[in-house]
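Hi everyone, sorry if this is the wrong subforum. Our group has a chain we'd like a structural model of before ordering constructs, and none of us has done structure prediction before. Sequence below.
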Amino acid sequence: MKTDKRYMQRALRLAARARGRTNPNPMVGAVIVKDGVIIAEDYHRKAGELHAEALALKHAGDAARGADLYVTLEPCCHTDKRTPPCTQAILASGIRRVVVAMEDPNPKVAGKGISELKNKGVDVIVGVCETEARVLNESYCTYIVEHRPFVILKSAMTLDGKIATPDGQSKWITGEKARRVVHEMRSSVDALVSAIGTVKADNPQFTSRIRGGRNPKRIIIDPNLETPMTHHVLTTPPETILVVSESVRKRYADKTGLLTMRGVEVLSYDGDRLDLAWLMRLLAARGITSVLIEGGASLNASALQAGIVDKVAIFVAPKMIGGRESLTPVGGDGFRSLDNPYRIERLHVRHIDEDLLIEGYVSREA
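Answer:
Right subforum, don't worry. Here is the predicted structure as tokens:
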């Protein structure tokens, strides 16, 4: 079992190399071992290309016969996609044993791939490093099972819990290395959601400025269509979607037309208040599997209240700025009692130079 775990951990590390590039597909890694030696390995790079198992088997060739295959997700068995079923490739290769980290929650697979291999005489073990595999593909699992994106709320604050000075200054609370981690986060998600207050105050680009990174779609909640035409989100790549009220969209039809000519989508909603859960469902329908929220106190409060946040990532800098008027990460009315606040579980804390990054999952229990 220790040996199985070691090889599976290697497969998980391989899979993670494609973070942010496989969506809407999962990240998958595969390692082929024969007589205690790794003879081939690979990982799925992006949707439409060969899966990890198929790539590893291609590298191994005839040497795969009688070998063990370690794969981080159940091999696919359906044909309604751009690549052939991995179960067929595994059976044709003569692999004798398959170790799987977790079942694929996709209803098209959901245990069928494992059953097919077992029925053909392949020894299959399931559940090695399952927890790690589920965390790796938490966005994929949420998207497939709940038909919505996995949502991460990111914020940065001082040691005394402030995200800006009384006059709104927030650059920079954290250090350069922490900001690089933020760029990595952006590169790993499909979309970034912010609000007009942050855009007007900071004129951010919301891009991933790392080598080989990708930029998420920028979704700006701007009910009254106030985003200045000269700001980065309207003048620079990548794609930007402005979310406005329908009444405002009609009132400012000329401006909407100019934005459309620039390639900016103006998405409208009915009523006085945006339903964030509705927005998440709409994004999922467009194939967006993961969202990073980078907003201010009001948006953070609204997102938590709407129940759309799965995970929080809070950077804490060793600074204190004080001030009654200084903003905190979460605004709104707050809770009047400590009996039932938003509870964060499975906490993980790491040092990033002089800053801390605290990550955890929002409890779904009432």
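For your construct planning: The chain has two domains: 2-139, 148-362. The chain has 13 helices and 14 strands.
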